[in-house]
């Protein structure tokens, strides 16, 4: 099982230096992260939306150690929203945020993260779009869900992410579905202990389907975060059984993975949102993409061999 090894490497400063220094790394990273700043990402936004796709934008970065860095992260999202405004895309381009970037892990981090993310949610609402709170490791989730609930009081379209591999997620899904929340369901991309999460892929897949059924049958708006063709087909069937119209749920996939499938789903009339990350602090994001899918790792290995 290479996934856990790669996830451990995502937290290693030594591995960060080695991977960052490899000549081929930038070429491979560009597959998943198409720009380092907002000037580079705006043409990507224009191109994808012109093809009938929707986006959720992530300014990558997780190693926040000071309140000043958290403020800078907030300002990076505010700059993105300012650049989105003239494009008039509304909810076709939303934001995804990790509360760790907004200071969640610092002393007084819960209040700091809420104070930093609220202006981003407010600014997004002003241009007709919204924000989704990404899930991180299990120790952060109670804080994330509390912030999500607080933000929804004024901005009910604020979304959140739940991870199928965690034992707690079925209960979280029932609560969120009953509340009418926007919820992105993913399998999970953090190294979690066996005490809190399924470790077997088959068990994770089964949990994903159980949770997805709960979301489809509920009052909220499900966002199906998966590249797995079988799970995508199951999602379509569950949506049909629940009587959901095409605009009452959506699919989400990562930029750089299964691009033809993005276009196919959009052409069939599905809402297809591309999770598009940009920024200079790409290492943790990149390593989790390698860990999630063996094909991603094979792509990286082939590129390294080809440039050895």
List keywords for this structure.
308 residues, alpha/beta, eight-stranded parallel β-barrel, 13 helices, 52% helix
Topology:
Blueprint: H1 2-9, H2 13-21, H3 25-32, H4 38-50, E1 54-59, H5 67-84, E2 93-97, H6 109-126, E3 131-133, H7 141-154, E4 159-163, H8 169-179, E5 182-186, H9 201-217, E6 221-225, H10 229-241, E7 250-254, H11 259-267, E8 272-278, H12 283-292, H13 294-306
Parallel strand pairs: 1-2, 1-8, 2-3, 3-4, 4-5, 5-6, 6-7, 7-8
Helix pairs in contact: 1-12, 5-6, 6-7, 8-9, 9-10, 12-13
Précis, in short:
The chain is 52% helix and 13% strand. With 308 residues, the chain is of the alpha/beta class.
Detailed description of the structure:
This protein has 308 residues and is an alpha/beta fold. Helix content is 52%, strand content 13%. Strand 3, helix 7 (141-154) and strand 4 (159-163) form a beta-alpha-beta unit. Helix 5 (67-84) runs parallel beside helix 6 (109-126). The chain starts with a helix and ends with a helix. The model is unreliable at 303-308 (pLDDT under 50).
């Amino acid at each position: 099982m290479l996934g856990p090894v790669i996830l451990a490497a995502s937290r290693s400063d030594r591995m960060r230096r080695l991977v960052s220094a490899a000549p081929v790394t930038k070429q491979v990273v560009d597959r998943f992260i198409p720009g380092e700043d907002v000037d580079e990402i705006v043409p990507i936004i224009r191109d994808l939306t012109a093809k009938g796709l929707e986006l959720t934008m992530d300014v990558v970065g997780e190693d926040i150690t000071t309140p000043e860095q958290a403020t800078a992260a907030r300002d990076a999202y505010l700059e993105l929203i300012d650049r989105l405004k003239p494009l008039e895309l509304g909810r076709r381009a939303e934001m995804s945020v990790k509360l760790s970037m907004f200071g969640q892990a610092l002393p007084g981090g819960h209040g700091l993260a809420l104070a930093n993310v609220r202006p981003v949610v407010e600014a997004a609402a002003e241009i007709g779009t919204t924000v989704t709170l990404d899930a991180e490791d299990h120790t952060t989730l109670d804080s994330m869900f509390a912030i999500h609930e607080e933000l929804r009081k004024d901005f009910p379209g604020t979304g959140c992410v739940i991870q199928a591999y965690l034992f707690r997620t079925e209960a979280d899904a029932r609560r969120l579905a009953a509340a009418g929340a926007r919820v992105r369901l993913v399998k999970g991309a953090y190294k979690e202990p066996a005490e809190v999460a399924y470790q077997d892929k088959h068990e994770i897949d089964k949990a994903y389907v159980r949770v997805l059924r709960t979301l489809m049958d509920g009052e909220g708006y499900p966002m199906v975060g998966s590249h797995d063709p079988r799970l995508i087909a199951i999602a379509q069937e569950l949506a049909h059984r629940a009587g959901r119209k095409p605009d009452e749920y959506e699919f989400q996939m990562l930029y750089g993975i299964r691009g033809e499938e993005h276009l196919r789903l959009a052409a069939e009339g599905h809402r297809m949102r591309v999770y598009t990350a940009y920024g200079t602090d790409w290492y943790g994001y990149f390593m989790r993409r390698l860990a999630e899918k063996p094909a991603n790792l094979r792509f990286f290995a082939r590129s390294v061999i080809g440039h050895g």
